[in-house]
Amino acid sequence: MTFTESPFWILTAAVFGLWLVFPRNYRASIALLLTSSVIFYGYHKPVLLLLILAYCLVNWGAGLLTEHSSRPRLVLGIGVAFNLLVLGYWKYTPMLLATWARMAVSFELPSAAAPAGDWVIPFGISFYAFTGIAYMVDVYRRVTPAEPSFFRYTLSAMFFPHLVAGPILRPSDFLEKLRPATMPDRPEAPLEALHLLSRGFFRKMVLADRIALAIDPFFQHVADASTAGVWSLPYVYLYALQIYFDFAGYTDIARGLGLLFGFRWPENFDMPYLARSVQEFWRRWHMTLSLFLRDYLYLPLGGSRCGLLRTCCNLMLTMLLGGLWHGASWSFMLWGGLHGCYLIINRLWSGWPFRAGSIRTCRSPMSQNRSSNCTTGAREFMVSP
């Protein structure tokens, strides 16, 4: 079920009406929101509920064990490995098998069976996998306590407004607000919610879908004689706009629905195509993913604290994996690699001593806030804290 299907809005209207009926009944509210999320996710393929519930059970259990185990790093490693291996199997198996089949033909190697034509990548799997990893790591770092209630954790992972297209939520963004003392019982900023919903539908259904009608025929026949001699650059620019309006529209709808149920979630896009540099672009594009990659991949790899060569390697690895996260295709990995190159060039150019305005002073690290410390590398990847 997606935001543009009629059953989704029938479900949402019914759930919202019931939620308003018993605003101070905490258990009933949790049960209602969790039940509606289960219906939403299992509407087309109920069997996929087993997958997301397995994710929730493993992540919830790993969080509790991490908090109380004498070997928390081992528990965390097992939990993160489960998330990544299952994500890799469902999302990247068709790509890997197709690649191996092409290599087998070229090098006369034994070929593997091609994936079934009806292979379905579970929608939202990247988002709830990353949400689970953020939860387990934050518990390990003692940033958030482990959640004792399986039902609360499951609701935080699969709440239907943000399940399909994000934003990627940290425990402080949502899970901690599901506890009895902080659970909202009324909408927050209803006018802002309606504005976000209206803007999201306009971006998705008026702009993105109409652009798709104009450019899809070109890309479907890009290798045919029918498109020979056609100037392709306008189609490339329109495709970039389509991606932005589609993704940003879905995020607007998710954030608007969150506000209707009393939850305020972080912004995900801030006019990224108006950025003046590639670094600023990643401060504006899919901001919750940029923060996730920074905090859970780039900085644990060492950030910019281990010399220029290591910093460049960390940037490239982060962007390669970030590109692959966007889609199960080697072209997405290439796209991520290009952005890694651009970020490295941007970093080198920013430190060039003869560039106007490049010289800056840095006081003692002890006299600065951690987020602005010149030695932490937190500001030098994508987004400011």
**Unreliably modeled segments:** 358-380
Q: Domains counted in the coordinates: how many?
A: 3
Q: Please indicate the percent range of residues in DSSP E strands (runs of 2 or more).
A: under 5%
SSE string, helices as H and strands as E: HHHHHHHHHHHHH
Give me some keywords for this one.
single chain, 385 residues, mainly alpha, 62% helix, 0% strand, globular
Please characterize this protein's 3D structure.
Helix 3 (48-68) crosses helix 6 (150-158), helix 8 packs antiparallel against helix 9 and helix 12 (308-326) packs antiparallel against helix 13 (330-350). By secondary structure, this protein is mainly alpha-helical. The protein is globular and about 65 Å long. It folds into 3 domains: 6-178, no CATH class; 190-260; 272-353, no CATH class. It has 13 helices and no strands. It has helices spanning 6-21, 26-41, 48-68, 72-107, 125-140, 150-158, 160-163, 190-220, 233-260, 278-284, 287-301, 308-326, 330-350. Helices cover 62% and strands 0% of the residues.
Write a concise synopsis of the structure shown:
The chain is mostly helical and 385 residues long. It has three domains: 173 residues, no CATH class; 71 residues; 82 residues, no CATH class. 62% of the residues lie in helices and 0% in strands.
Write the layout of secondary structure elements.
Elements: H1 6-21, H2 26-41, H3 48-68, H4 72-107, H5 125-140, H6 150-158, H7 160-163, H8 190-220, H9 233-260, H10 278-284, H11 287-301, H12 308-326, H13 330-350
Helix pairs in contact: 1-2, 2-6, 3-4, 3-5, 3-6, 4-5, 8-9, 11-12, 12-13
